[in-house]
Q: What sequence folds into this?
C-alpha cells in the first residue's frame, strides 16, 4: 500500500511537471509572440491552425529563394522547453518516398517567430545522432545544449539562427543502416535525403537552394551526414561531422557490394572531384582523447581538394560524446558553418 502511494505520488508529480512545462501540448511554430508568449505556443489547443492546412505566412519579401511552408502541417507536441522560452517538439512522419514512418523532433530559434523575419526563410540544420539512433534522437535532449549553443551564438554574432531538425536515424535498434537504401531493407537513405527535408519544407519557411541546407552529426550520424552531402551536393552544402566513421560498415551490405560502393564517401568525393563541383564543405570534429583522427587526416589528404573543402577541428580533452562535440561547435564549428550557409533576411524599413 505504501509502495502504491509512493508510486502514485511520483506519477502525479511527473504529470504536474509535464503540465506545468507544457510537455505534450500542441505546438504551433512561427506565430509572432505576444507580450507574454514564447516563440512557439505550447498550450494544448492554443490558437492552432488545422494540422492539414498550409501556413498562412506572408508572401516572400522579394527573395525568389524563399520557400513558404507547403503543407500539410504536421501535428507537433512539445517534448522540452528551453530557458529562453523556445521549445523542442516532436511529430510523426510517414515518409512518402521511403515508405518508412518515424519520429522527427524540431527546434526553431526565437528569431523565427519575430515579425521582422516573417517573410524570410531560415537555414536548416539536420542533426543526426550516433549509436542506435532509434527510437529517439539524442540531440532533442536539451541537456546536450545544442539549441542553447546556437541561441548563444546568434546573440554573439557567431551563429546563424538555424532551424534544427532531428529525425530518427535507423528503423530499429538491432542494426545500423548507414543512412542508405540497402537492398531489401527500409529505405533510410531516402528517408534522410528526401522525406525529412520535405517535412521541413512542409512546415517551415526554408530556402529552395542548397545554400540553406546542412547536416551535423556525431559518430554514425556524422558518417550519414557527410555521405549525404557528398551524394547530393545539389541539395545540401555542408556538414559538421563529429567523431565519425569514413566508410560504410553495416553488416546488411553483405552481398551488395555495388550498392555499398555507391554509398562510400571515398568514391563519392572522388566523383565530385572528377566532375569539378559543386563545392561542398566538410568540417570534421574530433576529441583529442578519442581515436579516429588518423582516418580523418587520410581522408582529407586524399579527397580534400578541388570542390571538396575540408577542415579538421581538434577538441582539446574532448571525448566521444555529444557534450564535447557541442563544445567544439561553440568554439568554432558553428561559426564555420554559418559562414557557408545563407542567413535569414530581416525586413527593411
A:
Amino acid at each position: 500500500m505504501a509502495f502504491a502511494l509512493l508510486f502514485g505520488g511520483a506519477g502525479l508529480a511527473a504529470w504536474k511537471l509535464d503540465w506545468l512545462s507544457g510537455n505534450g501540448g500542441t505546438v504551433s511554430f512561427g506565430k509572432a509572440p505576444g507580450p507574454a508568449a514564447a516563440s512557439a505556443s505550447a498550450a494544448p489547443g492554443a490558437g492552432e491552425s488545422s494540422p492539414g492546412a498550409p501556413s498562412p505566412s506572408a508572401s516572400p519579401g522579394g527573395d525568389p529563394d524563399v520557400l513558404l511552408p507547403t503543407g500539410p502541417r504536421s501535428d507537433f507536441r512539445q517534448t522540452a522547453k528551453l530557458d529562453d522560452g523556445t521549445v523542442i517538439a516532436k511529430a510523426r512522419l510517414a515518409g512518402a518516398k521511403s515508405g518508412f514512418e518515424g519520429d522527427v523532433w524540431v527546434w526553431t530559434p526565437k528569431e523565427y517567430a519575430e515579425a521582422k523575419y516573417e517573410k524570410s526563410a531560415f537555414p536548416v540544420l539536420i542533426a543526426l545522432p550516433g549509436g542506435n539512433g532509434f527510437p529517439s534522437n539524442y540531440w532533442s535532449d536539451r541537456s546536450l545544449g545544442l539549441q542553447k549553443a546556437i541561441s548563444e551564438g546568434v546573440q554573439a554574432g557567431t551563429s546563424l539562427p538555424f532551424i534544427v531538425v532531428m529525425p530518427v536515424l535507423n528503423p530499429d535498434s538491432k542494426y545500423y543502416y548507414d543512412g542508405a537504401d540497402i537492398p531489401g531493407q527500409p529505405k533510410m537513405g531516402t528517408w534522410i535525403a528526401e522525406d525529412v527535408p520535405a517535412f521541413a519544407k512542409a512546415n517551415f519557411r526554408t530556402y529552395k537552394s542548397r545554400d540553406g541546407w546542412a547536416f551535423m552529426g556525431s559518430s554514425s550520424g556524422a558518417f550519414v551526414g557527410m555521405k549525404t552531402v557528398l551524394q547530393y551536393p545539389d541539395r545540401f552544402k555542408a556538414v559538421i561531422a563529429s567523431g565519425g566513421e569514413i566508410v560504410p560498415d553495416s553488416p546488411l551490405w553483405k552481398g551488395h557490394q555495388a550498392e555499398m560502393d555507391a554509398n562510400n564517401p571515398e568514391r563519392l568525393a572522388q566523383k565530385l572531384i572528377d566532375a569539378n563541383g559543386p563545392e561542398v564543405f566538410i568540417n570534421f570534429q574530433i576529441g583529442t582523447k578519442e581515436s579516429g583522427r588518423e582516418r580523418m587526416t587520410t581522408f582529407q589528404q586524399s579527397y580534400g581538394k578541388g570542390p571538396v573543402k575540408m577542415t579538421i577541428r581538434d577538441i582539446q580533452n574532448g571525448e566521444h560524446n555529444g557534450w564535447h562535440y557541442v563544445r567544439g561547435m561553440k568554439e568554432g564549428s558553428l561559426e564555420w558553418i554559418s559562414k557557408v550557409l545563407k542567413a535569414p533576411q530581416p525586413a527593411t524599413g
The longest strand covers residues 87-94.
